Amino acid sequence: DAMVIQNPRYQVTQFGKPVTLSCSQTLNHNVMYWYQQKSSQAPKLLFHYYDKDFNNEADTPDNFQSRRPNTSFCFLDIRSPGLGDAAMYLCATSRGPWETQYFGPGTRLLVL
Amino acid sequence: AQSVSQHNHHVILSEAASLELGCNYSYGGTVNLFWYVQYPGQHLQLLLKYFSGDPLVKGIKGFEAEFIKSKFSFNLRKPSVQWSDTAEYFCAAQPPEYGNKLVFGAGTILRVKS
After folding, report:
1. Which of A18, B31, B39, B62 is the most buried (most CB within 10 A)?
2. Chain A hits for B45, Cβ within 8 Å
3. CA distance B30 to chain A (A)
4. Contact A45/B94, CB-based, under 8 Å?
5. Helix (H), strand (E), coil (C) string for A15-28
6. What whole-number distance in Å separates Cα of residue A6 and Cα of residue A76?
7. Residue-wise pLDDT tens digits, B37-60
C-alpha cells in the first residue's frame, strides 16, 4: 500500500544532542511537510518542500533544519534539542500544493 | 489573529447519540477545509474535505460536514455515533494566502460510552 512512513516511532535524545527524524513516502508526491504537535495542541507546520524548494515557516526556530535528498525521503534535523522540543513530529505529503495532505504515524521525541 | 476555532475540547456521548462538532475559521476568500481524525495510537487520517461545489460533504464512516460560507463554519456531523468513533477530531483550513499550509484547530476529543 502506498503510504507515509516515519522512523523511528519513538526517539529519546539528550538535551543538546543532535537528532534526526526520518520520513519516506511511496506516494510519489511532490510536497513533503513537517509538523510539530505538542501535547494537547494542534499540529503546527515547521516547513515544507515543494520538490527541492524549501519553505520555512517564519516562526520555526533555527534549531530545526530539513533535508530532502530525493522525492521519497525527507529528514528533520534538530541541532540542539531542548526540553521544549519534546513533541510528536508528523510528516505529511501531498501530490501538489492545495491538495490533500496525507500523514505518517509520527515520531514521538523525548528529550532528557 | 486569523485562525481555526473548534468549540469544544472534550465531548462525551453515548452510543447512538447524534454528533455535531463545531468549526469556525477566520480567513476570507476561497479556503479549502478539512476534517481529520486521530484514533488512539494512530496517525491523522482524512475524514472529509471541501474544496468547492456542494457545501454538504460526505466523508468516510458516515461522517458529513456542511460548509456555510456566511458563517465561516464547517461543522462535522454524524447521526449516530459508535464506540469506535472515540478519537480526536481536528478541523483544518488551507487559506490561499498561507500557501500550502494547513492551519489546524485545537482538536476535539470525543469519547463515546458504550
Report:
1. B31
2. 103
3. 11
4. no
5. CCCCEEEEEEECCC
6. 11
7. 999 888 899 999 999 999 999 999
